[in-house]
Amino acid sequence: MSEKRTGAQILCESLIQNGVDTMFGIPGGAIMPFYHAMWEYRTDLRHILCRHEQGAGHAAEGYARSTGRIGVCIGTSGPGTTNLVTPIADAWMDSTPLLAICGQVSSAVLGKDAFQETDITGITMPITKHNYLVKNINDIAYVVKEAIHIATTGRYGPVLVDITKDALQATAVPDYSKKIFLPGYRPTITGSKKQIKAALSLMLKSKKPILMIGNGVMMSDASAEVRVFAERYKIPVITTLHGLGAFPEDHELSLGMPGMHGWVHANRAIQEADFLMNIGGRFDDRVTGKASTFAPNARIVHVDIDPSEIGKNIEVEIPIVGDARIVALSMLEEEPEEKLVAEFHKNAAEWLTYIRELQTKHQHKQQYLNRPDTSTMLPHDVFAALTKQINTRGNYRVVTDVGQHQMWAAQLLDWYKPRTHITSGGAGTMGFAVPAAMGVAVAHPEDTVWAIAGDGGFQMTNQEMIVIIQENIKNMKIAIINNGFLGMVRQWQELFEGKRYSGTPLTSPNFQKLAEAYGWTGITVESVDQIDAAIERAYAIDGPVLIDFRVEREVNVFPMVPQNKSIGEMITE
Amino acid sequence: MKIHTLVVLVQDHPGVLNRAVSMFRRRGYNIASLVVGHTETPGVSRMTIVVESDNVEQVVKQLYRLVEVLKISDVTEDPVVDREMVLVKLHVTGQHRAEIVALTEVFTAKIVDVATNTMVIEMTGGPAKVDNFIDVIRPFGIKEMMRTGRITMVRGAKGHSGAELIDQAAE
Ligand SMILES: Cc1ncc(C[n+]2csc(CCOP(=O)(O)OP(=O)(O)O)c2C)c(N)n1
Ligand SMILES: [Mg+2]
Q1: Is any atom of ligand 1 closer than 6 Å to the C-beta of A187?
Q2: From 1.25.40.10, 3.30.300.30, 3.40.50.300, 3.40.50.1220, which CATH number describes the A193-361 domain?
Q3: What is the pLDDT of residue A150?
Q4: Under an 8 A CB cutoff, do A184 and B68 touch?
Q5: pLDDT tier at B170 (50, 70, 90 boundaries)?
Q6: Does residue A277 carry a catalytic annotation?
Q7: Which of B61, B71, B164, B167 to mutate against chain A (most A CBs within 10 Å)?
Q8: For all residues of chain A together, what is the average pLDDT?
Q9: Mean pLDDT, residues A447-463 taken together
Q10: Closest approach of chain A CAs to the CA of B108, in angstroms?
Q11: What domains does chain B contain, in order, with CATH numbers?
């Protein structure tokens, strides 16, 4: 250990010591020493060359969100790092543990507008949990350790480490032993016992309880504990977009997704509930609709690892700061009086019956899926076929892009397992799906990974398809829901702007041929009767397959809450 | 909107002031005054931030999200010593000189520079006293002025030492 190493070698060794095995990136001048060193460590540290740093960033996000481990992306100084800004912002909004390693110009010319110099720490300050500019080789080992610690503890998030070229080139004897010293960073993990007791007794007094679960449940791997809790008290469960899969959708207590494109019965249940416990969701405006009208009758408990989320959007009665899984475990330790629980069960059962009646009254999933008419191909027909096949053909993960198809996928596919639904929620970043699915496919070579994208978002990052070929990745498929429009924007134009389709009609290349040019198998589907066979073929081929589903052009996502309206006011057609 | 005084202890790292200010800017919080300086503990800096907010709790929570922030105290309701310093350069003609000197004494201010037509006065006091001094002196013709912003310390035994925080973390 007493041998001298270059900063770049120290960087590689630090990454390996801190559990990194895969990185996505693109080299360039300032970061070249790192690439030079990487070669020696390639058996432990896999580098996947992407075609655009945005792709590298989203791939790292997909890797992180599907595994719960740190995702790592790399860019060189200047444009290489500014291209990482979008995925960093995306990871910030969705609390994804991401480490961005950036090359920086040499410290001697820092601040002098040197070639490819960009103040990336300045640029990313508002969208990172923390960031560093490292100018001294002796700081590299410690900073990497601290950066990964910060990204993967508390509320997860992106951390950026910008390292000057001379620090990477210098040599020194590394010291990996320095202990993490963060006097200002001590996330609260265990919830207050007193608050937990108070929350439970408040819950047991209610007659119309709702449990809402979000990203925090996914990130802390709390699905099992939350499920036991829900079953013990028989509380109906609502899963937000990032909670999909954290609670199995076929469970008798599952109500599905709330919010702007959630189900009528789920939103109504929230509006009528007299108690709502939100675990690991942040009351995003896409969930609450107009915040002042959200859950007007409910006494609210909010469990979140980040105290700043509590009371930010919605006033709550009982805040519990802590990790979702640890808090769920402490809630399970409570043993309230059996009589109270029996009474609670009785009321909750009536309440659930009432919600199920609402559900049958208002158009629900099954009605969207089982359409009689087959002369036209609606997106719904594609999702009906996908959900049927996906669920009978082994382990899968689905990564969606942003737009109408994203909402249909969330609504119409069945979500059973945590970390099987991955999407860009908070930032709504078009172009997320293809590279993020690549990251997921790398992390889970045994699973079939589906990227579901719109014709618009697909064209923002489809260049990453060639990486799949170069890396010989076999387990990824792409489904394009091709409606010839920037569909979600078109829907708003149709509903609220008198059909002025300004800037939304979309011409696309022949996606099948494009796929073939990339060395993928391409399939075009133009009618309902071709859907099943196409998906079957996609599964039969041991390699990447793209299916272009040319669906009806002007179809809307319903139900829908118009912006800034109460979630009680849904448009259903 | 209510005016709050926050005492914030932070790790003395490059960029920490930038992070704090950037957070205030992007969340739309209004800083009335912000002063940073060293403390009794090496490696710990102290900020006195005066902020206008109806939801200071949210401001505090957002500040705590910064990794380098050690401790935040809202001392708005506490008994405190509040101090600010001002330097004022006055345009002075012979006839007013004596009057200004007399006022300076009343405010226990100091004349720190005298030239043919100007005079620089240094004055320290609570924010209200500083306001008052400036009002009184203004008619004589202020050429230049700079206030430091407020620094605050709670009276009595209760306090905000950086050393304890650092020691706790090192354990
Ligand atoms: C990078 C980016 N640019 C713009 C938008 C705004 N936007 C949201 S949805 C959407 C349309 C997406 O179209 P498409 O990918 O074809 O999906 P569809 O809605 O048709 O399913 C647009 C432009 C965005 N979310 N992200
Ligand atoms: Mg489209």
Answers
A1: no
A2: 3.40.50.1220
A3: 98
A4: yes
A5: low
A6: no
A7: B61
A8: 97
A9: 98
A10: 40
A11: 3-79+155-170 (3.30.70.260), 81-147 (3.30.70.1150)
Q: How confident is the model at residue B93 (pLDDT cuts 50, 70, 90)?
A: confident
Taking an 8 Å cut-off on Cβ atoms, the answer to whether B168 and A183 are in contact is yes
Say whether pLDDT at B169 is over 90: no
Q: How far is A307 from chain B (nearest CA, A)?
A: 6
CB contact under 8 Å between A122 and B18, yes or no, is: yes
Of the candidates A462, A340, A348, A440, which has an alpha carbon nearest to the alpha carbon of residue A395?
A440
Instruction: Enter the pTM of the model.
Output: 0.96
Q: Does A242 touch chain B (CB under 8 A)?
A: no
**Which of B26, B61, B169 is facing A182, going by the closest CB pair?**
B169
Chain A CB within 8 Å of residue B62 CB: yes
pLDDT value at residue B167: 75
Which of the two residues, B157 and A180, has the higher pLDDT score? A180
Query: Does B26 contact chain A (CB < 8 Å)?
Result: yes
Considering only CA atoms, which residue is closest to atom 3 of ligand 1?
Answer: A430
What is the interface pTM, i.e. ipTM, of the complex?
A: 0.91
Q: How confident is the model at residue A547 (pLDDT cuts 50, 70, 90)?
A: very high
Buried b (16+ CB within 10 A) or exposed e, B107-126: bebeeeeeeeeebbbebbbe
- Predicted confidence band of residue A486 (pLDDT cuts 50, 70, 90): very high
* Run of H or E including B133: helix B127-137
Q: How far is the CA of A265 from the centre of ligand 2 (A)?
A: 28
Question: What span, in angstroms and rounded, lies between the C-alpha atoms of A91 and A351?
Answer: 37
A488 lines ligand 1 (CB under 6 A): yes
Helix, strand or coil, per DSSP, at residue B96? helix
Q: If we measure between CA atoms, which residue out of A233, A240, A258, A268 comes closest to residue A356?
A: A268
pLDDT of A223 over the 70 cut: yes
- Identify the CATH homologous superfamily for domain A5-172: Thiamin diphosphate (ThDP)-binding fold, Pyr/PP domains (3.40.50.970)
Give CA–CA dist A483/A504, Å, rounded.
11
User: Which class would CATH give A379-550?
Assistant: alpha beta
Residue A458 binned pLDDT confidence (cut-offs 50, 70, 90): very high
Question: Which atom of ligand 1 sits closest to the CA of residue A488?
Answer: 19
A115 is a catalytic site residue: yes
Q: From ligand 2's centre to the CA of A504, what distance in Å? A: 9
> Do residues B130 and B84 lie in contact, with contact meaning Cβ atoms separated by under 8 Å?
yes
B66–chain A Cβ distance below 8 A for any pair: yes
Q: Where are the CATH 3.40.50.1220 domain residues in chain A? A: 193-361
DSSP state of A334: -
Mean pLDDT confidence for A123-130: 97
How would DSSP label each residue in B14-44? TTHHHHHHHHHHHTT-EEEEEEEEE-SSTTE
DSSP state of A207: S
Ligand 1 centroid to residue A460 C-alpha, Å: 10
Which regions of chain A carry the CATH code 3.40.50.970?
A: 5-172, 379-550
Residue A373 pLDDT greater than 90, yes or no: no
Q: Point out the catalytic residue in the list A13, A53, A309, A464.
A: A53
- The pLDDT score that the predictor gives to residue A570 is 92
> What is the spatial distance between Cα A25 and Cα A35, in angstroms, rounded to a whole number?
10
Indicate the pLDDT class of residue B161, thresholds 50, 70 and 90.
confident
